[in-house]
Amino acid sequence: MPVNSNVLDEKSVITVVDPQDGTYINEVKNHNAVDALKMIDTAVDAFNKSKILPAHVRMSVLNKVANALFEQQERFSQIIAREGIKTIREARKETLRCVDTLRLSAEEARRLNGETISFDQAPGSENRFGYFKQLPLGVIVAITPFNDPLNLVAHKIGPAIAAGNSVILMPHTETPLVAKMLVDLFNNTELPEGVLQLITGHGDVIGDVLVTDPRVRMVSFTGGSAVGNNILKKAGLKKVALELGSNCPAVVLADADIEKALDATVSGAFWAAGQNCLHVQRIYIADPIYDQFSNAFCERANKIKMGDKLKETTDMGPMINATAAQKVESLIADALSKNATLLCGGKRNGSYFQPTVLTDVSDDCFIANEEVFGPVTILYRFTDVDSAIEMANNVDFGLQAGVFTNDMNLAFKVADALECGGVMINDSSDYRIDAMPFGGVKGSGLGREGVANTVREMTEAKTYCFNLNT
Q1: Rounded CA gap, 330 and 332, in Å?
Q2: What are phi and psi of 117, to 5 degrees?
Q3: Contact predicate 1/213, CB 8 Å
Q4: How confident is the chain (470 residues) per 10-residue block, as mean pLDDT?
Q5: Which domains does the chain possess?
Q6: pTM of the model
Q7: What's the CA angle centered on 232, arms 227 and 234, to 5 degrees?
Q8: Which residue numbers delimit the Aldehyde dehydrogenase domain (predicted)?
Q9: In angstroms, rounded to a whole number, what is the distance separating the alpha carbons of residues 402 and 379?
């Protein structure tokens, strides 16, 4: 593939800084388009080794990395917190989830089985016998975001290795360090050289090379909608998995356990400063409990402690950079200019943004329809369940949702009617375990993650049929 040298970035390194205060942490190589092509060459060659690796070797690799990560969890957690947006307590939870994701991946390497096929169901095929096997795809490009810089990496490279593929990992330019640390753990195992490669660089320089090359058989991307749609247009004839975020709703019915609903939605609204695809952005509250709920929600939001991410007492850290915080500021300004009401928060200080609650937000506001990706939640009042469902579905996203009620008939009704990939009953949209199917509908993307689902997405069925003599 020809490379236009004019688009190569002249800087040889990417400097990684703490978004909290801009202090230097470390640097990584700034790869260019030529580097990307070389890595694809290497991945193609390495696939000849990875596709014949026995299941027990793939399991051993993944379990060794999981064990090493568990032993070094504090070192990894410190880097997650320093280069990204999470407090140290949030980072520790991500690290332990990553351990679980890798162990689940090892187990799926054991379960990657095919099935026999009853060919004699078709007249004239009585003497035929066969089966299918799940075989690895080949070279997979994995592109990951900044908000879960370790566990979302594991959700792509763990299943890819479990299935026998070779992988080129491209982490976000803001948070490449913990991804590199994880790749280094893999390099200390018996995984053949070149099966897992790390490429660090800017998407506008290396992205098209990785996505469009026909030797790449799958692109797995988690990130923004605009980039995801661009990948879909350019990828060509290959598998594409896209997780593109959301504008997640919660529906709180009149009979709900209010304390439980508050605990779940406040956490879901402000975890990782709202920079989370499962962030609780809209809450629909039944009229009889609206005042009680909204007052308590704002009271809890006001008590959230912002500050140094590495302090154990800090509840919420910064946004990924000042530009991201300014974008949230502009979304709120747009809503206020259209007669929205600010219940609490709304102030920016550099890359920090206060936990913010709005109400009276009209449908023509950007923040009502788009993913805010920040610590902002909108409260709505409803008088009947059907109107709450209609409002919750009235966006071009559908990742997950939360429903709070003690009435199981209502729970099933609302859950079935919500247009999304997952509904959490008496939990917010922000609840997830790494073993469950995960993905969205509408503008939230294509395909399903969750380790078992991802392993199967990263394979293809091959059928074998024997015409037997009788």
Answers
A1: 5
A2: -120, 135
A3: yes
A4: 39 95 97 98 98 98 98 98 98 98 98 95 95 98 98 98 98 98 98 98 96 98 96 96 97 98 98 97 98 98 97 97 97 97 97 98 96 98 97 98 97 98 98 96 96 97 92
A5: 5-245+445-465 (3.40.605.10), 248-433 (3.40.309.10)
A6: 0.94
A7: 95
A8: 12-463
A9: 14
